[in-house]
C-alpha cells in the first residue's frame, strides 16, 4: 500500500516537472561538455522520451500495487466453477489472471517499461526525429497514453487482451464478417 502511494506521488511530481520545466538548457549544457551530475539527472528526468519511460514504469508499478489490493476470493470461486463445468480454457484464463493479480509489483513495473519500449519503437519507426522539438502538449499526450496502458498492463494484462479481442470483434462486425 505504501509503495503504491509513494509511486503515485512520485508519478505526479515527475509528471509536473516534465510538464513545467524545459529540459533543453540541461541537454544543451551536456552537448557543450558541461557534464555534471546536476545537468545529467535533470536532462534525464525532464526530457520527454526518458521522462515518459520513467512515468510508464511508475504507472506499471502503481497497477501492480493496485492489483494486490483486489479481493481474489471472487476470482478463485470463478476458477472453481469453471473447473466443475470442465471449461479448461476459462480455467487457464482465470488462473492466469489470478497469477497476474498476485505477482510482485516490480514485475508489473517491468511490464510498464516493456509498454514504453513497444510504443516508442513504433513511434520511432513511423516518425523521424519525433523529439527534435518537444512541447507541453506532446508531453501530456505521450505521458497520458503510455501511463494508462502501462497501468492496465501492470494491473492485469488479460484486461488488455480483452480490449484487443473486443476491438477485433467490433471491426469484424463493422466489416460485415462474423
Describe this structure in words.
With 178 residues, the protein is mainly alpha-helical. It has one domain (2-70, 104-174). The protein has helices spanning 2-20, 24-31, 37-46, 48-68, 73-85, 88-102, 105-126, 136-155, 157-174. The longest helix is centred in the middle third of the chain and has 22 residues, at 105-126. The protein starts with a helix and ends with a helix.
Helix content: over 70%
Strand proportion, as a percent range, falls in: under 5%
Estimated radius of gyration: 20 Å
First-to-last CA distance: 45 Å
The arrangement of helices and strands along the chain is HHHHHHHHH
Average pLDDT: 92
Number of domains: 1
Total strand count, please? 0
Give the quaternary arrangement of the chains.
single chain
Low-confidence stretches: none
Structure class? mainly alpha
Shape: elongated
Q: How many helical elements? A: 9
Largest sheet: none
Topology:
Blueprint: H1 2-20, H2 24-31, H3 37-46, H4 48-68, H5 73-85, H6 88-102, H7 105-126, H8 136-155, H9 157-174
What are the salient characteristics of this protein?
178 residues, mainly alpha
Summarize the structure.
This protein has one domain.
Amino acid at each position: 500500500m505504501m509503495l503504491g502511494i509513494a509511486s503515485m506521488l512520485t508519478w505526479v511530481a515527475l509528471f509536473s516537472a516534465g510538464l513545467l520545466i524545459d529540459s533543453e538548457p540541461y541537454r544543451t549544457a551536456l552537448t557543450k561538455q558541461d557534464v555534471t551530475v546536476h545537468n545529467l539527472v535533470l536532462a534525464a528526468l525532464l526530457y520527454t522520451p526518458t521522462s515518459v519511460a520513467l512515468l510508464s514504469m511508475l504507472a506499471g508499478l502503481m497497477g501492480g500495487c493496485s492489483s494486490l489490493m483486489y479481493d481474489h476470493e471472487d476470482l478463485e470461486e470463478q476458477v472453481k466453477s469453471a473447473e466443475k463445468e470442465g471449461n479448461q480454457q476459462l480455467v487457464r484464463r482465470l488462473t492466469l489472471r489470478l497469477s497476474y493479480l498476485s505477482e510482485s509489483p516490480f514485475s508489473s513495473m517491468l511490464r510498464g517499461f516493456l509498454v514504453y519500449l513497444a510504443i516508442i519503437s513504433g513511434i520511432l519507426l513511423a516518425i523521424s526525429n519525433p523529439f527534435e522539438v518537444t512541447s507541453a502538449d506532446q508531453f501530456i499526450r505521450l505521458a497520458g497514453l503510455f501511463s494508462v496502458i502501462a497501468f492496465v498492463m501492470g494491473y492485469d494484462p488479460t484486461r488488455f487482451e480483452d480490449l484487443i479481442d473486443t476491438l477485433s470483434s467490433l471491426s469484424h462486425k463493422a466489416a460485415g464478417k462474423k
